[in-house]
């Protein structure tokens, strides 16, 4: 994961709409989202054939997380 993507992930203030979903992040944008990782992976790889996005599951409740880079 690039530092740009990790910074974007940490900067998302309103995660409410993504709670319990998988998201794919590339170039400071969420390029795919959904309940099933397989669906999100397919959609994200169709949009970005060259680079691999960051895949992250957003917790359903607020909790502190440790992001290991």
Give the topology, please.
Layout: H1 3-11, E1 22-26, E2 29-34, H2 37-47, E3 54-57
Antiparallel strand pairs: 1-2, 1-3
Describe this structure in words.
There is one protein chain. This protein has one domain. 29% of the residues lie in helices and 22% in strands. It is built from two helices and three strands. The protein has helices at residues 3-11, 37-47, and strands at residues 22-26, 29-34, 54-57. The chain has a three-stranded antiparallel β-sheet with strand order 2-1-3. A hairpin with a 2-residue loop joins strand 1 and strand 2 (29-34). The longest helix is centred in the middle third of the chain and has 11 residues, at 37-47. The chain is flat.
List the main descriptive attributes of the protein structure presented here.
single chain, 69 residues, alpha+beta, 3-stranded antiparallel beta sheet, 3 strands, 29% helix
Low-confidence stretches: none
What proportion of the residues form beta strands (DSSP E)?
Answer: 15-25%
Output mean pLDDT: 80
The number of helical elements comes to 2
How many β-strand runs?
3
- Helices and strands, in order, run as HEEHE
Radius of gyration: 12 Å
Count up the domains. Answer: 1
- Morphology: flat
In percent, how helical is the residue content? Answer: 25-40%
Structural class: alpha+beta
Distance between the termini: 7 Å
| Largest sheet: number of strands, sense, barrel closure | 3 strands, antiparallel
Strand order of the largest sheet: 2-1-3
């Amino acid at each position: 994961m690039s530092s740009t993507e990790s910074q974007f992930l940490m900067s998302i203030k309103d995660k409410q709409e993504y709670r319990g979903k998988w998201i794919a992040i590339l170039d400071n944008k969420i390029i795919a989202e959904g309940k099933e990782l397989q669906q999100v992976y397919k959609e994200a790889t169709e949009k970005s054939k060259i680079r691999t996005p960051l895949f992250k599951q957003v917790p359903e409740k607020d909790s502190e997380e440790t992001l290991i880079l």
